[in-house]
Amino acid sequence: MSTTWDTPAAVLIEHVADGWEGLWSLLYAASHATVKLSLSVPLTTSADLTFAAMDLREARDELEWLHEHLTTGAVAVDLGPLRPTDLHVDARQILGRLTDAILERTYALIDAGTTPAETACLRRVAGKVYTARATILGPVP
Fold first, then answer.
1. pLDDT value of position 140
2. How far is CA 12 from CA 63, 105, 128, 131, in A?
3. What proportions of the chain, in percent to the nearest 5, are helix, strand and coil?
4. What are the pLDDT digits (tens) for 46-61?
5. What torsion do the CA atoms of 92, 13, 140, 108 make, to the nearest 10 degrees?
6. Which residues contact 136 (CB under 8 A, 6 or more apart)?
7. Distance CA 19, CA 5 (A)
8. How do the pLDDT tens digits run along the chain, 141 residues long?
9. Is 74 helix (H, G, I), strand (E, B) or coil?
10. d(CA 26, CA 141)
11. What is the DSSP secondary-structure string of 88-117?
12. Which of 27, 29, 37, 35 is nearest to 3 (CA)?
């Protein structure tokens, strides 16, 4: 990988807390990184990335509406700046890994047994993250 985000993203995915707090932390990092990427690409692709960032932010909102403590109890991680020398394709792949980790944790929380309200929330989160992931990575062959 040729981007400054590789190491912090790998550490975050590997060491983030389990449960709701970890899910929130991953969403926080992914939404902020997607905004940064959208600001560094040509205008023709930045709009799609902006919508992906909005989807990730809305997914985080879903968690916050259900569990208000996440905004103060979970760890907010910023992957740092995206340098002009960083490759956008690599940044997209890192965001793909983050969204994969988000989806894995989302499904793990559903499987662990949640209340009906939590399950509904997590299903909405999964839908928004899946849509964002598809936009970030492009069409799947």
1. 54
2. 19, 13, 21, 22
3. 75, 0, 25
4. 899 999 999 999 999 9
5. -150
6. 34, 37, 49, 52, 92, 95, 96, 99
7. 23
8. 467 899 999 999 999 988 999 999 999 999 999 999 999 888 888 899 999 999 999 999 999 999 999 989 889 999 999 888 788 889 999 999 999 999 999 999 999 977 999 999 999 999 999 999 999 998 654
9. coil
10. 26
11. HHHHHHHHHHHHHHHHHHHHHHHHT---HH
12. 37
User: What residues contact 133, with CB distance under 8 A and at least 6 apart?
Assistant: 52, 95, 96, 99, 100, 103
Tokens of 21: 């707090």
